[in-house]
Specification:
about 850 residues; alpha+beta; D-amino Acid Aminotransferase, Chain A, domain 1; OB fold (Dihydrolipoamide Acetyltransferase, E2P); 5 domains; eight-stranded antiparallel beta barrel; eight-stranded mixed beta sheet; 14 helices; 45 strands; globular
Length: about 850
C-alpha cells in the first residue's frame, strides 16, 4: 500500500482498479493522464449515500482531484474537527458526476454534487500535502473562507486519516447558530423533488397572456390605502443556492411608488415624500394607464447606453431634463378595490405586465431573467449594473425589511450621513473628502471617508451645500464607540457639519473597525432622510440563504431515545418548510405540544386562546360558529413560531378555511393491530388502492410516521362532511366485509388483533390527520413522508424516515411522488353509486 506521501505519484491508478467502467456510470480516466491547466483550481463536495451517508471532499491539483471521505461533512464552526479519510485520486471529470453507482460496484449508492467552486492554496500545496498540513480558501456556493486539512495518521495506520476544519475568519460561525449540512442539504446541480415553488411548471404559472388565468384569488376587497410603506430587500453577500427566485436587475435609481385614486396620480418616495410636482410629466404618463385605483411600486432611472446612471438621474431631477426619467415598475400592490398584498409575487407581476402592455416608453415593466443566478450575476457585473434583486416567487408583499426579497450587489453600496468634509489641497471652494456616518439605535457612528467619485463641478457644488451647515465639533456620539480616524486627523483639517445630507457611496468592504474601504461617491440622496441611515446588515447566503435558527432552550432533549433536541426539530422544520407548507396552508389544525419533551406530558392545541405563537393566523370566530377561532400555519415564520413553542406534531383538517364545510380529500388511516407484520400492512395498502381504482378514484400514499400508512384521495370540494364521511364509512365496511381476515372496521384493540384497522372517523368535521412531513411525538421521532406506490414494497416501516434522516432522503430524490396530487380533479359521484 502506498504511503500518504506517495499517493499523488499514482494519480489515477487506484481509481481505475476499483471500478468496472462497463457497469458504473462514473467517468473513466482519459488515456493520457490529465495535465495541470492554467485555470482556477476546482473544488467539489459530493454527497454520497453508499452503505452510509458521507461527503467526498475533492480539490483539483496537478490535473486530478485529491479526495477525502468526510463522514460528517464540513462545518463552519472552527471547533468542529471533522474526520477526513484520504482516498484515491479521482479524475477531474468526476467533479460534475451525479447519479447512481450500481449494486456490487465499489461505492454503490447515490451521488450528488453538494457544493462546487474554486479553491486557492495558502502557500505551496505540494509542500502542504507532503507536510500533512494544507491551508486553503474556498469560493463555493455553500462553502467559503479559509479551511485547513491536517494529517493525523501514523505511518502504521491502515487509513490515511486527516482532520478538516474551518479556520477562524469572517465566515466562521458556531454550529449552534448554523449547520450548513442541515441548512443546505440539496444538490447545487439538480433541483430536489417537489419544492412547493416547482410543483407547477413554468408554463403552468400565472399566464401573461390571459387575465383569467392569473390567480388573484388571495386578493382581499379593501379601500385604497392612503399610504403604503414599501417592501425592502435584505443585503446578501452571495447568491441563493436553492428555492425559486424571480431575478431582476437592481436598478441604480430612486425607489418610487405611484398611488392612483380615481385616475389621479401621486408619486411618493420610499420615505413617503410627495414628488408629484417634481415629476409632473411622469405622473401624467402614469395617469394614461388603464386603471382607476392602484398602488404601483418601482424605481425611476435615467438610462445611458441602456444602463441606469445615478448621476444622470440626479441631474434630471434637479434640472430641466426630467423627461429622460424612466419609471420601471416591478410590483402591483393594489388594483381596483382589491388589496393584492397576499397574492403571490408571480401573479402580481403577471397582472402588472398585462396592465403595462400598451404603456409608453417612460413607463416600463421591470423584466426578470430565467437563467442560473451565477450566470445572471456575472452578466450584471460585466454590464456595470449595481447588482441583482432576488424575490421569492410565492412571496406576499410585506412592508419593511424582509427575507423574501434579497439584493446582491456587484460592489457594496449604501447611503451614509455626511458628517463633515475636508478641503481639496491647493484648490479653494472644493471638497477633498466627505466624512461619513450612520446611525445605530439613534447614535451616530463614524464610517470613515470617501475622497473619490466626483468632478470639479460636483466638488464645488458639495462645498456650497455643506459650508452653511458647519458646526464646531464632530456630530458623532462618543458614547456610541471610541473615537476613530477622524480624531487623529491634523487639527483644523476637517469641517464638521450638521448631519442632514445623505450620500450614496460604493465601496469595496468594511474594515474590522467599521470603516469603509476604497469608497467612491455616487451622488446625494434627496429622497432619504439622514435619520433613517443605518449600516445595512448583510444576510449571508453563503453559507446560508436560509434563516439561522434562534430558539430558546435549544439543547432541551425532545426525544430521550435519540437525543433529538429542540434546535434539531426547529432546523428540521425549516429544512422541509417548502414541502410542508402546501399541506398546511389555509387548513385549520391541531398542534401537539411537548413542553418538556415527548416522554413527558403532551397536549393538543386547536384554537387561538393564549397561543403565544406570533405568525399563526387566527380566523374569524364565525367561520365555525359555536367554537373558538381556528388556527392555520401558512408561512415559514408561523411554522418556526410553533416550533419555538414546542409543537412537535401538526394535524390538519380535510378542508380549507375558504370552503370549510366542503372537504377536498378523504383519508384512510391504516393502523395495524397486535400481531400484524409490516408485510401485511403493505398488502392492505395495495388492496385499498386497488378498490379505490376500481371505483374510479386516484389515491396517494404516505407513511404515518408511526406504525401505519395513510392513503389520501383528493377531491374537488363539492360535498359536505356528512356525505364524505358516509362514503368513507361505506368503503371501510365493504373492505371488512369482503376480506374480514385482513381488515377491521371497528375501533378498539380487541377488534383488530391480527388485522389492519382502517380508520374512517378522520373524515368527519373537525377531525384531523397528521400532516405530510410532520414529526411524530414517539420514540425515534418518525416523520410522515409522501411516497409513490412503486416505493411501497421497499418500505420497512411507517416510521422509516425520522427527523434525523428525512431531509437527507429528500435531497437524493429527483421526482416528487405527489407531483400530480395538486392538480387532480375528481369527485365521489360515481364511487358513491357503485358502493351502494
Amino acid at each position: 500500500m502506498p504511503t500518504p506521501s506517495d499517493r499523488t505519484r499514482l494519480p489515477l491508478s487506484n481509481y481505475r482498479k476499483k471500478r468496472d467502467f462497463h457497469v458504473t456510470p462514473e467517468p473513466a480516466p482519459s488515456a493520457g493522464e490529465a495535465s495541470e491547466d492554467a485555470h482556477p483550481s476546482l473544488f467539489v463536495v459530493q454527497k454520497h449515500w453508499a452503505s452510509r451517508l458521507h461527503y467526498d471532499f475533492r480539490l483539483e491539483l496537478d490535473g486530478v482531484l485529491l479526495s477525502w471521505a468526510v463522514p460528517k461533512g464540513p462545518s463552519y464552526d472552527p471547533k468542529e474537527k471533522r474526520m477526513a479519510i484520504h482516498v484515491e485520486n479521482h479524475p477531474v471529470d468526476y467533479a460534475s458526476f451525479e447519479g447512481a453507482i450500481p449494486p456490487k460496484q465499489y461505492g454503490s449508492g447515490t451521488v450528488l454534487v453538494w457544493d462546487r467552486g474554486t479553491w486557492e492554496p495558502v502557500g505551496d500545496p505540494h509542500e502542504g500535502m507532503k507536510a500533512g498540513k494544507l491551508v486553503f480558501r474556498l469560493h463555493g456556493e455553500k462553502l467559503a473562507g479559509l479551511w485547513e486539512l491536517v494529517r493525523i495518521a501514523k505511518p502504521e495506520d491502515r487509513q490515511d486519516q486527516w482532520m478538516l476544519f474551518k479556520k477562524r475568519d469572517e465566515w466562521a460561525i458556531p454550529l449552534s447558530e448554523y449547520d450548513v449540512i442541515k441548512a443546505l442539504p440539496d444538490s447545487v446541480v439538480a433541483k430536489p423533488l417537489g419544492l412547493a415553488e416547482e410543483r407547477e411548471s413554468r408554463s403552468a404559472r400565472p399566464s401573461r397572456d390571459a387575465d383569467s388565468e392569473i390567480d388573484l384569488s388571495a386578493a382581499a376587497s379593501a379601500p385604497l390605502p392612503a399610504k403604503l410603506e414599501p417592501q425592502l430587500a435584505t443585503l446578501a453577500s452571495s447568491l441563493p443556492t436553492g428555492g425559486d427566485w424571480i431575478i431582476e436587475a437592481k436598478l441604480d435609481g430612486y425607489r418610487l411608488l405611484a398611488r392612483v385614486d380615481k385616475g389621479r396620480v401621486r408619486l411618493f418616495t420610499s420615505g413617503g415624500h410627495d414628488w408629484t410636482k417634481k415629476l409632473a410629466g411622469l405622473a401624467a404618463e402614469v395617469e394614461r394607464l388603464p386603471v382607476s385605483s392602484a398602488w404601483l411600486d418601482g424605481e425611476i432611472v435615467v438610462l445611458k447606453d441602456g444602463i441606469p446612471d445615478f448621476a444622470a438621474l440626479q441631474d434630471a431631477i434637479d434640472g430641466a431634463s426630467s423627461g429622460n426619467i424612466v419609471f420601471f415598475l416591478f410590483d402591483l400592490v393594489y388594483l381596483e378595490d382589491k388589496d393584492l398584498r397576499k397574492v403571490p409575487l408571480s401573479a402580481r407581476r403577471a397582472r402588472l405586465e398585462k396592465l403595462l402592455e400598451h404603456a409608453g416608453e417612460r413607463i416600463r415593466f421591470c423584466e426578470d431573467y430565467e437563467a442560473p443566478p451565477a450566470q445572471v450575476f456575472q452578466a450584471a457585473s460585466d454590464l456595470g449594473l449595481e447588482g441583482l434583486m432576488f424575490k421569492r416567487r410565492d412571496a406576499p408583499y410585506v412592508s419593511g425589511r424582509s427575507q423574501t426579497w434579497l439584493k446582491a450587489k456587484c460592489q457594496l453600496r449604501q447611503e451614509f450621513v455626511i458628517c463633515g468634509f475636508t478641503s481639496r489641497g491647493g484648490t479653494a471652494g472644493e471638497i477633498g473628502s466627505l466624512l461619513l456616518g450612520y446611525y445605530v439605535g439613534g447614535r451616530l457612528h463614524d464610517a470613515g471617508s470617501v475622497g473619490a467619485g466626483w468632478d470639479a463641478r460636483t466638488a464645488r457644488d458639495l462645498w456650497t451645500r455643506l459650508t452653511p451647515l458647519e458646526m464646531e465639533s464632530a456630530p458623532f456620539d462618543v458614547a456610541a464607540g471610541k473615537p476613530r480616524r477622524w480624531s487623529r486627523r491634523a487639527a483644523g483639517s476637517e469641517h464638521w457639519v450638521q448631519p442632514l445630507l445623505v450620500a450614496e457611496v460604493e465601496f469595496a468592504e468594511w474594515t474590522t473597525d467599521g470603516l469603509v474601504r476604497q469608497a467612491s461617491f455616487k451622488g446625494l440622496r434627496t429622497d432619504k432622510s439622514a435619520s433613517s441611515v443605518v449600516r445595512e446588515a448583510t444576510k449571508t447566503l453563503a453559507p446560508s440563504h436560509l434563516p439561522q435558527v434562534k430558539v430558546t432552550h435549544p439543547d432541551r432533549i425532545i426525544d430521550p431515545t435519540t437525543g433529538v433536541t429542540k434546535l434539531d426539530l426547529a432546523r428540521y422544520y425549516i429544512s422541509v418548510a417548502q414541502w410542508m407548507l402546501p399541506h398546511l396552508k389555509d387548513r385549520p389544525l391541531a398542534m401537539l405540544r411537548a413542553p418538556v419533551g415527548i416522554a413527558e406530558e403532551l397536549f393538543f392545541q386547536k384554537h387561538a386562546e393564549k397561543t403565544g405563537m406570533p405568525g399563526l393566523k387566527a380566523h374569524d370566530r364565525n367561520l365555525w360558529p359555536g367554537h373558538p377561532p381556528l388556527l392555520t400555519v401558512d408561512t415559514l415564520d408561523a411554522l418556526l413560531s410553533a416550533s419555538q413553542m414546542n409543537v412537535v406534531e401538526f394535524h390538519t383538517w380535510n378542508s380549507t378555511v375558504r370552503r370549510l364545510d366542503e372537504p377536498d380529500r378523504v383519508i384512510f388511516d391504516l393502523d395495524p393491530g397486535e400481531g400484524v407484520k409490516w408485510r401485511q400492512v403493505q398488502e392492505a395498502a395495495l388492496l385499498v388502492h386497488t378498490l379505490l381504482l376500481e371505483l374510479g378514484l386516484k389515491a396517494w400514499l404516505k407513511t404515518s410516521g408511526g406504525k401505519g400508512l395513510h392513503i389520501v384521495v383528493p377531491l374537488t370540494p363539492r360535498l359536505d362532511y356528512a356525505a364524505v364521511k358516509s362514503f368513507s364509512r361505506s368503503f371501510v365496511r365493504h373492505l371488512a366485509k369482503t376480506i374480514p381476515e385482513r381488515f377491521s372496521a371497528t375501533s378498539g384493540a380487541s377488534n383488530r388483533i391480527g388485522r389492519v384497522y382502517v380508520d374512517y372517523l378522520r373524515n368527519g368535521i373537525g377531525q384531523t390527520t397528521v400532516a405530510a412531513f410532520s414529526a411524530r411525538a414517539r420514540p425515534g421521532m418518525g416523520v410522515s413522508m409522501p411516497v409513490s406506490w412503486e416505493q411501497l414494497s421497499a418500505l420497512k416501516s411507517g416510521a422509516q424516515w425520522t427527523v434525523q434522516t428525512a431531509r437527507e432522503h429528500l435531497s437524493f430524490q429527483t421526482q416528487d411522488p405527489w407531483a400530480d396530487y395538486w392538480s387532480n380533479k375528481q369527485t365521489l359521484a360515481s364511487a358513491l353509486k357503485r358502493l351502494k
